[in-house]
């Protein structure tokens, strides 16, 4: 079983920055070759892809709406990934979720392709 825990969400003013973390714990397995993704879901909207990469790092993929503002990276702790969000906009307001995909695919935008999800962390950007 893989457990994902997001943290770092809070209220921030437009133009500000936030750093979200996703920590994974996996009993009896190695997740370094899993794919991972950040998604977000605003009220009344579908869950949408934000960014993704392999858990061990490497090539990153971004949604057009966040490219150039958000950066995905692996923390020194190999089981933690970080989403650095800069120049935040009110339209970035959403619950942000971390997800893991066991086949190691990266940049998958369909949330149904992911196998494990965290509980989410709320990001609110005020104008």
Task: Write up this protein.
The protein is built from no helices and 11 strands. By secondary structure, it is mostly beta strands. Strands 2, 4, 5, 6, 9, 10 and 11 form a 7-stranded mixed beta sheet that branches. The mean pLDDT is 95.
Low-confidence spans: pLDDT under 50, at least 5 residues?
none
Element-level helix/strand string: EEEEEEEEEEE
Which structural class do you get from the secondary structure elements?
Answer: mainly beta
Main sheet specs: 7 strands, mixed
C-alpha Rg (nearest Å): 13 Å
Residues in helices, as a percent range: under 10%
How many alpha or pi helices?
0
Q: Quote the beta fraction.
A: over 45%
- C-alpha geometry: globular
- Distance separating the two termini: 40 Å
| DSSP summary, beta strand count | 11
Mean pLDDT: 95
Short characterization:
The chain is mostly beta strands and 127 residues long. The protein contains no helices and eleven strands.
How would you summarize the topology of this molecule?
Layout: E1 2-7, E2 11-13, E3 18-26, E4 35-41, E5 48-54, E6 60-62, E7 70-74, E8 80-85, E9 94-101, E10 116-117, E11 121-126
Parallel strand pairs: 2-11
Antiparallel strand pairs: 1-3, 3-8, 4-5, 4-9, 5-6, 7-8, 9-10, 9-11
Supply database-style keywords.
mainly beta; four-stranded antiparallel beta sheet; 0% helix
């Amino acid at each position: 079983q893989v457990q994902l825990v997001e943290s770092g969400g809070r209220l921030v003013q437009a133009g500000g920055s936030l750093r979200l973390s996703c920590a994974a714990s996996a009993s009896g397995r190695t997740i370094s070759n899993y794919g991972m993704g950040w998604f977000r879901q605003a009220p009344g909207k579908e869950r949408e892809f934000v960014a993704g990469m392999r858990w061990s790092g490497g090539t990153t993929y971004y949604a057009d709406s966040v490219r150039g503002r958000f950066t995905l990276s692996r923390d020194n702790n190999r089981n933690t990934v970080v989403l650095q969000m800069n120049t935040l906009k009110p339209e970035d307001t959403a619950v942000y979720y971390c997800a893991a995909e066991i086949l190691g695919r990266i940049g998958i935008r369909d949330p149904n392709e992911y196998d494990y999800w965290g509980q989410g962390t709320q990001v609110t950007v005020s104008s």
